[in-house]
Structure formats: C-alpha cells, structure tokens
Structures
1.
Amino acid sequence: MATFFRNAQRLAHESPVIFWSLAIGFSGPAMVLTVPPIRKSFGYKQAERIPSTFPVPNRPRRSVSGYEDP
C-alpha cells in the first residue's frame, strides 16, 4: 500500500494532468452511489419528465381552409 501512495505522489508531481484525470475518472462510479442519497437529504425532488409526444385530440380532424393559393 505504501508503494501505491509513493507512486501516486510521484505521478502527481511529474504529470498532474494524468493524475487528476485518473482521480476524477475513478471517483465517478463512487459518485453514482453517494450523490443521490445526499441530494435526497437536501430535499431535492426530481423534475417532471418532459413529454416526448404531443397529445392527439380524440375527435375527427377538420380540413384546413383559407390557406389556398389564388
């Protein structure tokens, strides 16, 4: 375990871009399990889903008039 921290420290000093990209990448799966309960404890309520279709009226369709070319 000590060698892991020593290698991580060396990587952080020599190439911080790689170190932080790995740190953020590995924290992603942990956030999937920790963020929803934290949001719920703050009182966050999920928004209603946006409709993906337009409701069609339950009546016969009328023909369009008044837009004919002269």
2.
Amino acid sequence: MAKDDKTLHAGFTGSPLDKQDGLKGRAKSAAALVKSEAGAVSAVAADHPHTASTLLIGISALAFGLGYLLGRTSSDDSSRRYWR
C-alpha cells in the first residue's frame, strides 16, 4: 500500500551548514580549510614519502642558499678589508 503523505524523502543524511557571520565565522571557515588542506598534504606525503622528503630537502637547501646570499650581500665588508 502506498502512503498518501506529501513529504519529500530525498535521502539527505547530512546536517545543514551553520553559517556564522562576522570574524568568528570567517576564522572558523579558514581554520577548517587549512585543516583539510593539511590533511590532503599529509595523505599525499604518506603515499609518496621519497618525493615528499626530496621536496622538503630541496626547498630547505634553496631557502638556506637564498638566505646566505642575501646575508652576504647585505654586509658592507667591501669597503673594509680584513687584510690590509
């Protein structure tokens, strides 16, 4: 027998999003976005550990080299020489 009620049974199993206005809502959504992106990065790093470690070492070496060069050029030792 068929029911004769007029309700819609669409199969929605989630809960509606709680929209919060203002700074608090934006901060919560930004934190959730950062958390989901960090989870995605960690999942990829877990699937490809050699690639992740190679990228980490490469970026670290590049940052160290750039910092060394910037520190070396910012010092004004060209006018003063150690050996006279």
3.
Amino acid sequence: MKLSGQSSDPKTKTHYNNCLSNFGANEGALGEVSETQQLLKSGDYNWVNMCASTIMSDVDDCISGNSLGTPPFQDASELPKYAGVVTQVAQIILILTNFLLN
C-alpha cells in the first residue's frame, strides 16, 4: 500500500493496488501460503503443489501487470526483486512436493 501512496500516476496506483490484491490474504499469494501450511501438515502434497503453482501465478500477475493486449508494467521499485524471492520459495516447494509424491 505504501508504493501506491507514493505515486500520483493513476496507472502506477492501479498497478500497485492490483499487486496488493495478488499478494493478499483473501484471494492472493498470502492466502495460498496459509493454505499450503495446512496442506503440508495433512500430507496432501498434490494440493501443496497446486497452491505453490498458484502462488507463482499470483506473483507473476503482479509483476507483469499486463492485461490482455497491454504492455507489461515497468516497475522501478524493489517489488519485482522481492516478488522474485517469493517465486523462488514457491519453486522450492514445488520441487520438494514433486519429490515427496514420487
């Protein structure tokens, strides 16, 4: 939310508000992380795998910031760097769950 408040450009504000939704606890990556924790405890590795994929999709939706037919958003903030770390963690979860499923 801080990034959204730092800009007066409506396109930038919209992008960061969309990212907030993509990372949010209700329908975003944070909600998926919470669900993933519960699924790991229950041993449901197929669903853990699905949740990790959804986390990566949510992050990608934020970072690309493009709607159908529009160019990607050029984000000069630190957000893409930190979002990349979230993606890497989700990739590690995918690798581990694939190993546990075999």
